Amino acid sequence: MKALRDEDLKRILLEGAFLEETKLLEAVTIAKQTNKDLETVILEKEWLTDQHLGQIIANELKVSFVDLGNQSLSEEMLGFFPEAFSIENNVIAFRKDDEGVHVALHEPHNAHLTQLIEKKVDGKVNFHYASLNNLSQAFHLFRKNLDQQITKLSDAALAKSDGSKNTEQDTEVIEIVDLLLEYAYTSKASDLHFEPQDSDTVVRFRVDGVLKDMIFLPKSLHDRIVTRFKILSHLRTDEHFAAQDGHMNYKFVDEKVDIRISILPTTFGEKIVLRLLSEKSRQFSLEELGFGSGDFETLHKQADKPWGMILVTGPTGSGKTTSLYAVMKILNQRDVNISTIEDPVEYSIAGVNQIQVNKKTELGFSQGLRSIVRQDPDIIMVGEIRDAETADIAINAALTGHLLLSTLHTNDAATALPRLIEMDVEPFLVASTVNVVLAQRLVRKICLKCIGSYEATVEELEENGLLVPDKVKEKIFKNGGKARLYKGAGCPVCHDTGYSGRTGVFEVLIVDAEIKKMILDHQSSDVIRDYAVSQGMTTMFDDAVSKVLQGMTTIEEILRVVRD
Q1: Across the strands, what pairs with 275?
Q2: Contact 142, 163 (CB under 8 A)
């Protein structure tokens, strides 16, 4: 939501003669061409200052204007609202005095947002209008404040005269760990890496599938941080030369997150990797995952079949489990029995019987699947078909009247079929059981807070170091001329990356009568794929290209992730 609609801003600027009409009309044209707000274009052209335009908008909204650049934001004010809430809603508390808490926001007319803020604040709230640029600059202080807090705590921890490594009493280390976990959560990181180096420890976050250096910690604190995580995850604190795996639950503001931990000895010390399994990040529908209407209808139709197999393929981290969970949400009715065997169970689904793989008790996918079949299931989900034994049991379960969902590690949909045959499954069994194969990747979405469009030619992109394949030239540039593309400029919401969140790119292969015949004839995956495309299958590459043209992602991103 904008502070003012472009039409209203245009009217106000014309009526008040704040901007020459010719400039205003030019700004309106540019805004339409580049998919930017009128306010943004005027500021980029420097036809009005941020303060002047902000005061004009505030007067129209009948609220006071605040220039956050003239405010001294204390640690207390920065911590008044959770960082994620502040950035997502363009709101920040900047002062507290006898009149109450003073809050700057970009949408003071948004009743839902102001009511939410009033609920969060104990006392009187005074709302002030602030420009997006002003708020964006203020949000950078969150990161600066984190660095300052970590430095302050690190110095205090190192100053302890006894050099104690009793992490249960090591309050500074506890606070450092808590701060980093909370910051990772608000940054929507899926993984945290604590990597010991020669002179320091680098903390890296994986956000939207990409690792980024975040904080550097003193090397002398590394062992104490490792010990803290071992205590939290109930691992051996006296073991430093063997790999250890564990997990812990951590309560954030509004969610309890399961954290899986892996500790591995390296040359410079024990490396820690944490995987944050957020329940919220898995609660998506198929439409929200990025399925086009055609693929959605196809998959939904296949999911309604009472027996057979639905396979999801792709590399590690491509969102396969999330897609299976979305399918299970469709199938999860009180008149069916759904059982799963997973490693790990990423979040609980009410009404579904979920089993966690347990290596200590030798409960693996094959053993768990064999037991599930005896539990009178209608629908079975196996986290992954890893070996011939699991494949054999899965195929037989699908043959005997069960709908079975699972994943495979293959590069595209067609390759899944010969892959099962390589696992010693008879071709006639593959042809008889597999209903549909879904292949997918995840690409980063352009940040909607800083998105903009531009026109470019292939030559211009290649001059900037991007090697553009022939197929991209054909699909996007039509073998010549300019194309309208989109990218994010970078802002606090996306941590200056230009991307925020991810979406899927998919191909859905239906195993029809002709493909069944191809399986029996041991045809290659290329032949199967070419036939499926001739019958209307949208390839992952074509799906990715369509998302570029829609402004959902960038050319750079699809070339990074999708290989045709």
Answers
A1: 191, 260
A2: no
Enumerate domains of the chain plus CATH numbers: 6-136 (3.30.300.160), 160-276 (3.30.450.90), 282-442+503-540 (3.40.50.300)
pTM, rounded to two decimals: 0.76
Q: What is the pLDDT of residue 120?
A: 83
Q: Which residues are CB-contacts of 337 (< 8 A; sequence separation ≥ 6)? A: 353, 375, 376, 377, 378, 379
Q: Which of 558, 428, 421 is nearest to 499 (CA)?
A: 558
The phi, psi pair for 504, rounded to 5°, reads -90, 150
Length of the chain: 564
pLDDT tens readout for residues 529-548: 999 999 999 999 999 999 99
CA distance 9 to 47: 14
Q: Are 258 and 249 in contact (CB under 8 A)?
A: yes
**How far, in Å, CA of 236 to CA of 227, rounded?**
9
pLDDT at 563 over 80: no
Give how far Cα 327 sits from Cα of 301, 320, 379, 390, Å: 11, 11, 11, 21
**What DSSP designation does 290 have?**
T
C-alpha dist (Å) from residue 239 to 58, 264, 312, 359: 61, 11, 39, 20
Q: Which residues pair with 249 in a beta bridge?
A: 258
Task: Dump the DSSP string for 70-103.
Answer: GS---HHHHTSS-HHHHHHHTEEEEEEETTEEEE
For residue 217, give Cα distances in angstroms to 33, 181, 224: 46, 15, 12
Name every residue whose Cβ is closer than 8 Å to that of residue 554 and which is 6 or more positions away in sequence: 446, 485, 486, 487, 498, 548
Classify residue 396 as exposed, middle or buried by CB count within 10 Å of its CB (0-12, 13-18, 19+). Answer: middle
The span from the CA of 56 to the CA of 67, in Å, is 13
pLDDT of residue 282: 56
Q: Please name every residue paired with 484 in a beta bridge, in sequence order, or none if there are none.
A: 455
pLDDT per residue over 6-61, tens digit each? 888 999 998 888 888 888 899 898 888 877 888 888 888 888 888 889 889 989 88
Nearest to 58 by CA among 132, 130, 134: 130
Helix (H) or strand (E) holding 551, with range, is none
Q: Which string of DSSP letters, residue by residue, matches 2-16?
A: -SS-HHHHHHHHHHT
